[in-house]
Design a protein that fits this description.
This protein is α+β, with helices and mostly antiparallel strands and about 210 residues long. The protein contains 4 helices and 9 strands; from the N terminus they run ααββββαβαββββ. The strands form 3 sheets. Strands 7-6-5-8 form a 4-stranded mixed beta sheet. The protein has a 3-stranded antiparallel beta sheet with strand order 2-1-3, with helices on one face.
Length: about 210
């Protein structure tokens, strides 16, 4: 995400996002220490900056402030968090059935992803080869927030569908592993979750847009 563009949109539109709400080692590194609520506000801020329709609303208006659960307009052309099903499909790319986002070997090492604290923190986006559909860092670097509430069994029961997750829950889904987890945590199928107001030094986001 382009931090400068988002900062301008935040200032112009009154978003409840402060300077400490999301950090990064450098402009080419992923943002981290960002809550789920801050992630969806950043998605809206980027949408407004690029003159796109924001996806998230609360009480009928664009979601700018607070920590209420927003509604998502799935037909809007702005930025949003991926659903868990979208995230996994993107991570697998053309390699369905493989353990990691690549489809030549079911192993991981430090030449393929940033994990297991090999690099002592985040690495620049795109430091490793992309997966089969051109996406970078689908394993390691930072955990990525998804839209869905976490359900222990709900995802398995809806796997392969256009699921948007349970209607309620206590934690929001995390995917992808991070620079701090071991190999098992970076598997495409691995699932995590945290409370939506939680932030961590290895927890970030990835934004998507609905294809027109």
């Amino acid at each position: 995400m382009c931090g400068a563009l988002v900062a301008l949109a935040v200032a112009a539109n009154g978003y409840g996002i402060g300077p400490a709400d999301g950090e990064g080692k450098a402009a080419d590194h992923p943002v981290y220490n960002i809550t789920w609520y801050e992630a969806v506000k950043r998605a809206n801020a980027r949408s407004e900056k690029e003159e796109l329709e924001p996806c998230y609303t609360a009480s009928g208006v664009v979601y700018h402030m607070g920590e209420s659960t927003p509604n998502c307009n799935w037909s809007a052309n702005g930025y949003r968090l991926p659903t868990e099903a979208e995230w996994e499909k993107a991570a697998r790319g053309e390699g369905a059935g493989w353990r990691y986002p690549w489809s030549d070997i079911d192993e991981i090492d430090a030449s393929r992803a940033n994990y297991s604290n090999y690099y002592g923190g985040t690495t620049p986006v795109g430091s490793f080869a992309p997966n089969g559909v051109g996406l970078y860092d689908m394993a390691g670097n930072v955990w990525e927030w998804c839209w869905d509430w976490y359900g222990e069994t709900s995802y398995a029961s809806s796997l392969g569908s256009d699921s948007r997750g349970p209607a309620s829950g206590t934690g929001r889904v995390l995917r992808g592993g991070s620079w701090y987890v071991y190999a098992n945590g970076c598997r495409v199928a691995n699932r995590g979750n945290y409370w939506p107001d939680y932030e961590l030094g290895n927890l970030g986001l990835r934004l998507v847009r609905t294809a027109s």
